[in-house]
Protein: HTH psq-type domain-containing protein
Organism: Ignelater luminosus
Amino acid sequence: MVRRYIKRTTKSNISEERIQLALNDVNNKNCSIRATAETYCLTKSLIHKRLKQHNSNENCNESAASEIPLAFYSFQSKYSSRQIFTKEEENMLATNIEDCSKMQFGLTYQQIRQFAYSYALQLNRRVPNN
């Protein structure tokens, strides 16, 4: 991939607010999934998947989930299960790399990858073999 790749599509720039409004419409029985998808310019599968996640959370905690409105549910990326570092650890790693750069001790991409790998090993994390 090119180092300075410029993304040309806005397909993934869907605001979470728009998704929540659509989910509330479907949940309140105002519209069908298909009509809501057309109204909010979303895909039917996205709305269906989010409703399924909401309903599975509701089945786990029926008493707690009924009191919490739909807007308070947060949805994560599908890659978060394979994530090695937490957000704090990742930010700390990024600030260390930036500090090295500011001290005129620039690191190559391979050195940064080796640094991140050794940091993950030091934290006793599971790291892929490649």
About this structure: Residues 103 and 128 are 31 Å apart (CA to CA). The radius of gyration is 21 Å. The longest helix spans residues 44-60. The chain has a mean pLDDT of 80.
